[in-house]
Write a structure and sequence with these properties.
single chain; alpha/beta; Rossmann fold; 2 domains; nine-stranded mixed β-sheet; 13 strands; 15% strand
Length: 395
């Protein structure tokens, strides 16, 4: 396992954020102690301004203090004996700094969530990055994915099959769409799942086949309830497999969209799209929609009480979602597979990799034209997860 260090200042204004290092924090504390002990002394000004031998001795004393301070800062900067080439589990990687300040607990006081990554986009690579999490799902396991419209870039059975079948009696779960298409009613949706090969891997459950159930939303500014498929309550653990890509309305689709819009019933999808206001989801306030995705996602995570993990596959990186039966052909390279227990950290890591890619301009433009980063901003603000993360390569 090796460490993947991203540059201190990311290309093209990538919106990630670096965790503070132990050296920097220690150096700052050393400086604060010296400054408090000496430079705030009431006699400091008198000592250095006195026109006497005592004053000259005071100047010499101050110069010695300054030299000691500089030496302490230098030693602090060099004090960590762990190098980038030989990381330990406690010091694996950092991200790039964000242009916006951290809300909530800072990286200085608690370790940021880890995002594992492989560039091996294969069945073996998917299993390996999942195993890096060290997760132990138990009980009735739901594998949440997008079944995708016919002709879309949805996740292929040959890629995900080995992982899905590693679980004990898993069920692939989805919900009906609210926009029409081939998955707007349950019978058609089951047919699409069969046509795409998912029924060969495991049982498939369209969770809103029997309607909706409500989850309470805490800390939201738009939603108080989130309506998910009624069968949501039938499962103990969710493994969320997402195809990371662009999206015509959200800017991008990843883990947060998969647990919000993806787990919402057809009724719930409209509720999210309209920011809880009802009416047409095609003319709703954009930021309210983005914020509502984060709020709906948080209600799902809260309901599962930690029994959930997330994997994003960064291949076929079209600007269009898998809900599009005629997506634009990708014009950037495949990147890899990433996994985390934090959906915000995972999506942020994927965003940062897109921004850092030399050929990512089309997808970046799609994200920014829809203000897609606002979903991450609001998700962090309400406590769904952290935009600060450690990116660890398992290659």
């Amino acid at each position: 396992m090796s460490t993947f260090f991203l540059p201190l200042y990311p290309p093209r204004g990538a919106p990630g954020r670096a965790a503070e290092t132990h050296q920097a924090r220690y150096a700052f504390e050393v400086w604060q102690i010296i400054k408090h002990k000496y430079f705030t002394c009431p006699r400091f000004r008198d000592i250095i301004s006195a026109p006497s031998a005592k004053g000259m001795n005071g100047v010499k004393k101050v110069l010695c203090i300054l030299l000691a301070c500089a030496a302490a800062l230098t030693l602090a900067a060099c004090g960590d004996t762990t190098s980038a080439s030989t990381p330990t589990p406690e010091n694996e990687a950092v991200t790039t700094p964000s242009a916006t300040p951290t809300s909530g607990a800072s990286a200085a006081t608690e370790r940021p969530p880890v995002v594992y990554m492989t560039t091996d986009i294969s069945a073996d690579g998917l299993v390996a990055v999942y195993e890096a999490l060290g997760a132990e799902p138990s009980g009735r396991i739901a594998v949440k994915l997008s079944t995708g419209e016919p002709g879309s870039n949805c996740l292929r059975p040959e890629l995900i099959g080995e992982l899905v079948q590693n679980f004990d009696e898993p069920t692939i779960v989805e919900c009906n769409t609210a926009y029409g298409g081939s998955r707007a009613n349950t019978a058609m949706h089951y047919q699409v799942a069969e046509d795409h090969g998912y029924t060969d891997l495991a049982d498939v459950d369209i969770m809103d086949e029997d309607g909706s159930m409500a989850l309470h939303v805490t800390g939201g500014t738009n939603l108080t309830e989130n309506y998910v498929g009624a069968h949501f309550a039938d499962y103990d653990y969710f493994v969320v497999l997402s195809h990371f890509k662009g999206h015509a309305m959200a800017g991008y689709g990843g883990a947060i969209k998969n647990i919000s819009i993806g787990i919402a019933s057809a009724e719930g999808k409209t509720h999210i799209h309209t920011g809880g206001q009802g009416g047409s989801m095609w003319s709703a306030d954009q930021d309210a929609f983005l914020e509502s995705m984060a709020e709906a996602g948080k209600s799902v995570v809260d309901a599962l009480d930690g029994n959930i993990l997330y994997v994003n596959v960064m291949n076929r990186l079209s600007v269009d979602c898998d809900c599009d039966s005629s997506p634009a052909e990708p014009d950037m390279h495949d990147i890899g597979i990433l996994a985390s227990f934090d959906p915000v950290a995972l999506d942020q890591a994927c965003i940062d990799l897109v921004y850092a890619a030399e050929d990512g301009e089309s997808l970046v433009n799609r994200i920014e034209s829809r203000n897609g980063l606002h979903t991450l901003e609001h998700a962090e603000a309400i406590g769904l997860g952290s935009r600060t993360y450690e990116l660890v390569s398992i290659d």
